[in-house]
Each structure stands twice: as C-alpha cells, then as structure tokens.
Write a structure and sequence with these properties.
The protein is 25% helix and 33% strand. The protein has 287 residues and is α/β, with parallel strands linked by helices.
Length: 287
C-alpha cells in the first residue's frame, strides 16, 4: 500500500465506529467511512473538537450537523499545491487527500522527461490531478460531466497560482468526448481516469463501472500518442481488486506500448497510531 504521509494541512486524528475524525487545515470534521468497522476510539477526547459531523439518514443520504461555525470554503495546502475545501452533500469535501501519492507520482513522471506532455484527465472532479500535472509543466485537458465540479477545478487551479497554465476545461460525457477526440485525431501523452461506480453524463448518459470501463480503456488507447508517458486508473468501487485494473491495462495498453504495469492500494495514516485507513486502488502503466 502507498500511504500519503506528506500532508501538513490534513491528518486523521482518530477512527472508530464507522467514522474518521479529520483535520483540514484548522477545521476538524467527522465523516463516515465504511472501512472503519472497529468500535474502540484511540483518542476519545479528540472527538469533542469536531466542528461538524456528517450523519447518514435512515432513509438515505444525510446531512451535516455543526457544533462550531465552519466557513463556506477554506484552503488547504499540499507542498506547493493549494485546494479549496467545501463541506458538500453526501459527506464530501471536494478533495481526496490519499490521492497525494498519485499527485507525487505524476509530478515526478512529468518533470523527469524533457519534452512537452499533454495530459487527459477524465472524471476529473475538482481537479486534484489536473492541478498536479499543470504544476509539473504539462498541458491538461480536464473533463467532467458536472459543470459545478469543473468550476471548482478552475478555483483550485487559481488557488495554486496556475490559472495562466494551458488547461482546457470540458463539461461533457467522458465516452462521448473521447470518441470525438478519436475522430479529430487528437492525442495525449498521459491519461488519468477516476471512474465512478455508477454515474450519469452531462446529458443523462448512464455509466456502470464493470460494464463500461473496459470499453473506455480501449477507446483511450486510441488517443494515446506514439510516445505515451503513463496511464493511471484510480477507483473507489467496492469489491474491485487493484489486480483487476492491472489486468485491464495488460489486456489493452501494454499490448500496444512497451512499459511497466503495476497495481496497489492507497491509504492515509492516523496520527499517533500504527493504523492505516485503506482508501482506494490504482492501476498504472508507465513507459
């Protein structure tokens, strides 16, 4: 497992009873997490410091309850990158801090090569990977079906002082966009995707992970340049092994391009403890 150990503005303070207690800058939040099945908190007193808690409803969904005033948004920093945090519906804050391990990996890959790199970021959400790749010097095409998330990505880019970097922001269904890029003859040196388990495109197109991911990878292989740098798949889909992602890359990308394929988990450490929270999986092809 690769663990995001280099945060200063984020930490897990405790985990128990299906919840994690997190510090985002100066703000402490309690949020549900299905991986936390143990019941004994390590630091019971720390839970009293939570500014807000996201509580699930028995009828589905949930809501934030506040014990202290929380700003509408605030900034956190990871090394030279800056992101806006906003408590949202369905427990999210707009950032997955465990992705820092992928940001570091992508930045290193891009900065190591001495040529222009074009990156395609699909299901790009609020742009964590887009910010990282742009910071590293790449040109980025950021694609997400949510207009609100794309607007948030622009805010993150500006917060990191990267608003003048070459970035295309596209609000569209990912599959439709890639098909158009194939017809246009556009290519990319690196592709990132973080597909949801289930989702809908900009015009109501249905996405199902198990059914649509193999087809999307094959489509994306047709927009890879002649000298591709990397292909990264990230996933939070329950029940899917990281080995599945490596298998998909071996069956598609590795057949057309020489390189290394790997897979693994990503996680977050808990401060003052040996506990690690598993957060997701990845599959990587790299030249």
């Amino acid at each position: 497992m690769e663990v995001a150990k280099n945060w200063k503005d984020y930490e897990i303070l405790d985990m128990a009873n299906g919840e994690k207690l997190e510090r985002w800058g100066d703000i402490i939040l309690a949020r549900p997490d299905p991986q936390i099945i143990w019941t004994s908190p390590s630091f019971p007193d720390k839970w009293k410091k939570a500014y807000a808690r996201y509580q699930r409803s028995n009828t589905g969904g949930g809501a934030w309850s506040y014990s202290k005033k929380v700003p509408e948004s605030w900034k956190v920093h990871y090394k030279d990158l800056t992101f806006l945090i906003k408590p949202m519906g369905f427990k999210h804050t707009g950032l997955f801090p465990e992705q820092a391990v992928n940001w570091d990996w992508m930045i290193q890959k891009i900065q190591k090569v001495e040529r222009p790199i074009q990156v395609l970021n699909l299901f790009a959400y609020t742009g964590g990977a887009s910010v990282a790749c742009s910071y590293a010097g790449a040109s980025v095409c950021h694609v997400d079906s949510s207009k609100g998330m794309v607007a948030w990505a622009k805010e993150n880019m500006a917060a990191s002082g990267l608003e003048d970097r070459p970035v295309r922001y596209i609000v569209d269904d990912v599959v439709k966009f890639v098909n158009r890029e194939i017809r246009r003859g556009h290519t990319y040196d690196a592709i990132i995707m973080d597909p949801p388990s289930y989702g809908r495109g900009a015009n109501g197109e249905v996405w199902k992970f198990e059914e649509n991911l193999p087809e999307l990878i094959e489509l994306c292989s047709k927009v890879l340049s002649d000298q591709p740098l990397f292909f990264l798949i990230n996933s939070y889909t329950t029940g899917i092994s990281s080995m599945v992602l490596e298998n998909l890359l071996n069956l598609s990308i590795a057949k057309k391009h020489k390189g290394k394929v790997s897979h693994g988990e990503i996680g977050l450490p808990m401060t003052g403890s040996k506990l690690i929270l598993p957060c997701g999986i990845y599959g990587r092809w790299e030249s």
